[in-house]
Amino acid sequence: MDEIPQFCLDNGMISPLDYRTIEKWLLSHNFYALIGLQYAVEAVKSVLIPYNVLSFNLTATEAVHRAALERKVQSETWGTVEWAHSVEEAELTARLSAAVLFVYFNVSKSTTSVA
């Protein structure tokens, strides 16, 4: 029997410990950081990719590459429309980078004094 895809965390598909871990991570961010995180998630259609960029496990370029694997495989198979795919990749990299920087600067505890 095939499982029906679920679109929320309240479906029992993840363990209570994982649920609490995700909840704790999200609650550690202020409102503005969550807005930036939402922007990043919507850009790459994944929660894990922005998390890995914020955790310094991936660069924005690596993250966009992982987010666009399906498109890249199709492009390698069928060819690319250079201007369209290059523009799309550059836009996605810029959107993800901007969102991650916004989140980072909203949760960063360090301050810089202006001399």
Automatic annotation (TrEMBL):
GO terms for cellular component: mitochondrion. This is ATP synthase mitochondrial F1 complex assembly factor 2. Transmembrane segments: none annotated. It comes from the Eukaryota. One of its GO terms (biological process) is mitochondrial proton-transporting ATP synthase complex assembly.
